[in-house]
Amino acid sequence: MNTRVLDYLCCLDCGGILNLGEGTAGPEVESGELVCGGCGRRYPVVRGIPRLLPDELTLEKLRTASAFGWEWQEFDSLHDDKETYHQQFLDWVHPIEPDFFRGKVVLDGGCGMGRFAAAAAEFGARDVLAIDLSDAVEAAYRNTRHLPNVHVIQADIYRLPFGRPVDFAFSIGVLHHLPDPEGGFQSLVTHLKPGGSVFAWVYGRENNAWIVHLVNPMRERIFSRLPRKALYALSLAATVLVHPVLKLLYLPANRFSSLRPLSKMLPYNGYLSWLAQFGFRHNHHVIFDHLVAPTAFYITRDEFRAWFNKASLSEPRISWRNQNSWRGWAVLEHADSRA
User: Fold this and answer.
1) Residue 88's closest CA among 278, 254, 273?
2) Whether residue 198 is found in the same domain as residue 222
3) Do residues 165 and 188 touch, judged by C-beta distance below 8 A?
4) Structural domain tally of the chain?
5) Which range (18-22, 77-81, 251-255, 281-285) has the least confidence?
6) Cα separation, 140 vs 285, whole angstroms
7) Is residue 71 one of the residues assigned to a domain?
């Protein structure tokens, strides 16, 4: 933990300033504690990560945190070069460009293994506050500790421990796994400064009927309840079957102009042709990710737009991603529009 993060953190109970506890030395803290100057509450710093967690978490939150904590520690690296991560990040946050991040304080709401927090930092963000409720923070810290402008914090998205507003908040692939997706989105908005903006990417309900009505019930009742290693093996077997189809059918059908008519006939082409560009390890992770979550919501465009409207944000720029998910971006225009 770089002690620069103390400029942003505050106590969950009283909002007081946090200071280094007795015997906790900076500027890089591997272990120790943070102490609230107001109410005296103490928060541990363990393996370089400040742990600012509420006293109680619901069973649903704990199950989800356990699932994704295991996932991101197992799949803590998916590509060999950071350029691939950069390209993926820009695909998710389209139409945002790299220069947008320069000099901004950025909040990553659900950082997983830290790949997108790292991308934002490498695009020139002043500081990136990367939070996650799960043990994925361990992988995120390992993957970003070389970046002094990334601060990994274990925290609950519904009770964020920040006393200063941020310029930009984003959440990719997280909100739809929360017990209250819109509540998580609104929590991010409350931490924006006037003129700041928020971006979110969520599963879409449109074009996903087969997942909503077939895969999702099986995931809830069977797959998410399996031992993690068993699900790892099951998803590995599924990848062995699916990956050759992606490479031998979907990839050439979308790459070569002579085969473009075929691509229009392929089921779920928008999404599967995107997967076809990646390696086996990445696609194994994607299949595992679709099966492990205890909770998943599939959100319509109208529902998604309503989140932005209720938060008194500017008219959102909503776009269709891979014909199966929604991404949205909007600006907080006035200080009094924050909750």
Assistant:
1) 278
2) no
3) no
4) 3
5) 77-81
6) 16
7) no
Tokens coding 128: 């990136």
Q: And the tokens for 260?
A: 């473009």
Buried b (16+ CB within 10 A) or exposed e, 219-229: beeebbeeeee
Whether residues 148 and 34 fall in one domain: no
Residue 182, domain extent = 81-204+301-337
Structure tokens at 55: 């006293």
Residue 246 carries which side chain, given as an amino acid letter? L
Tokens at residue 278, please? 């990646």
Residue 101 resides in a domain: yes
Say whether pTM exceeds 0.85.
Answer: yes
d(CA 299, CA 289): 18
Co-location of 269 and 168 in the same domain:
no
pLDDT 10s digits, 76-117:
887 878 888 999 999 999 999 999 999 999 999 999 999 999
pLDDT (tens digit per residue) in 160-212: 999 999 999 999 999 999 999 999 999 999 999 999 999 999 999 999 999 99
Q: Is residue 111 part of a domain?
A: yes
pLDDT digits (tens, 9 = 90+) for 259-270: 888 888 899 999
CB count within 10 Å of CB 160 equals 24
Query: Which residue in 142, 137, 171 sits closest to 157, CA to CA?
Result: 171
pLDDT on residue 335: 54
Closest CA to 298 of 122, 185, 173: 173
Percent pLDDT > 70 in the chain is 98
Q: How deeply is 21 buried, as exposed, middle or buried, from its count of CB atoms within 10 A (0-12, 13-18, 19+)?
A: middle
Q: For 287, list phi and psi in degrees, rounded to 5.
A: -65, -45
